[in-house]
Specification:
Layout lengths: L4 H6 L3 H34 L6 H28 L7 H35 L10 H18 L1 H6 E6 L4 E6 L5 H16 L1 H16 L8 H38 L6 H31 L2 H28 L4 H6 L1 H7 L8
Antiparallel strand pairs: 1-2
Helix pairs in contact: 2-3, 2-10, 3-4, 3-5, 3-10, 4-5, 4-7, 4-8, 4-9, 7-9, 8-9, 9-10
């Protein structure tokens, strides 16, 4: 969703018209599914009775980052549907772009921490560590949000609403003071968003899979509980890499284009369209995670079902209490037995 002068020269193609027609409904679908799914995940984590585990802290922050992301996408859906006419002001232009940029960095860091936590839980279950302390995990999450904001600060600094006379629109435009900032953006995304977290995630994943295959280790009751959580984490990591790896490759190709190793409008069109497709594939990851929790995470399903059963049970108890408290005399108490019997029918006719 970046707009620059070279894009204006080389983008007059049928492919862009076709792509622009598909983007708004696709973004709308991601937004609806993402808001519903991530809100459900946060409700389950926040309303559960037991204290948060370290994995809950990381996955809850991941759901919060995904929720912020999908809440920002409708603004771009409306903008693309109106031929990139930005109608929400410069403050929202900067804020929304910064939140979207933060989502990727925070998500990959939270997943890296989740993989480390699963590694410690499975590969070193008998070695207690401060790394598996929920209080410590919350502090780390605050640090991750700060780092994500710092890495996304150029979007806040250089995004602005500019008028393009050739198009007759005001667009939310990423205007760098020097072309070298494009190289900085690509390197920051590739290094901090991929090259640094990937070895940590890969190493932890290797040991997690190795621990899952260790039958002697699985005899321990504590490890048996961690096993299902590790399977969920592996699934989330795999889907994340499938969704965001094309985006990282396109950013690397964009770096090659910066040095003009493959010039020409054809290459510009291919690169720009690939960037759009890879970006929206990455955005879709924010709406996939909640469904992975439900499909793969049996422990999460049980918690969600227990939460809803608890809410429905408390609702019935509240209604019964209101009925019983509304009576002031023994006669009133006797008259309330009939609706209570209707609410709780007898098991057998004899009763």
């Amino acid at each position: 969703m970046d707009l620059n002068s070279s894009t204006l020269v080389c983008n007059d193609t049928a492919a862009w018209t076709w792509l622009s027609s598909l983007q708004p409904p696709f973004l709308a679908l991601i937004s609806i599914l993402g808001v519903l799914g991530n809100s459900l995940v946060l409700c389950v984590f926040c309303l559960q009775r037991k204290p948060w585990s370290v994995a809950d802290v990381y996955l809850g922050n991941l759901a919060a980052a995904d929720l912020i992301m999908v809440l920002c996408l409708p603004f771009w859906a409306v903008t693309i549907a109106r031929d990139y006419q930005w109608s929400f002001g410069q403050v929202l232009c900067k804020t929304i772009s910064t939140f979207i940029s933060m989502n990727y960095f925070c998500s990959v860091f939270f997943l890296m921490l989740v993989s480390v936590d699963r590694y410690l839980a499975l590969a070193k279950p008998m070695n207690p560590s401060n790394l598996r302390c929920p209080r410590w995990a919350k502090r780390v999450c605050v640090l991750i949000w700060v780092v994500g904001f710092i890495l996304s600060f150029p979007a806040l600094l250089f995004r602005r609403v500019s008028f393009f006379p050739d198009l007759g629109i005001e667009a939310c435009f990423l205007q760098y003071p020097h072309p070298a900032w494009v190289l900085q953006r690509n390197l920051t995304t590739n290094v901090f968003g991929f090259l640094l977290p990937l070895p940590v995630i890969s190493l932890c994943t290797f040991h997690i899979v190795k621990a899952l295959k260790n039958r002697g280790l699985l005899i321990q009751p504590r490890v048996q509980k961690e096993r299902k959580a590790a399977q969920l984490v592996l699934t989330v990591l795999t889907v994340f890499l499938l969704c965001w790896t094309p985006f990282q490759l396109v950013r690397f190709l964009n770096t090659l284009d910066y040095f003009q190793l493959m010039p020409g409008c054809l290459w510009e069109n291919i690169l720009q369209i690939s960037n759009e497709l890879a970006t929206y594939l990455g955005y879709s990851n924010s709406s996939m995670n909640p469904f992975l929790y439900v499909i793969v995470g049996s422990h999460f399903r049980k918690r969600a079902q227990g939460l809803f059963r608890m809410k429905s049970s408390s609702s019935v108890q509240t209604n019964a209490t209101v009925i019983s408290k509304s009576s002031d005399s023994p006669k009133d108490i006797r008259t309330t037995r009939l609706p209570l019997k209707a609410a709780f029918p007898p098991v057998t006719n004899a009763i």
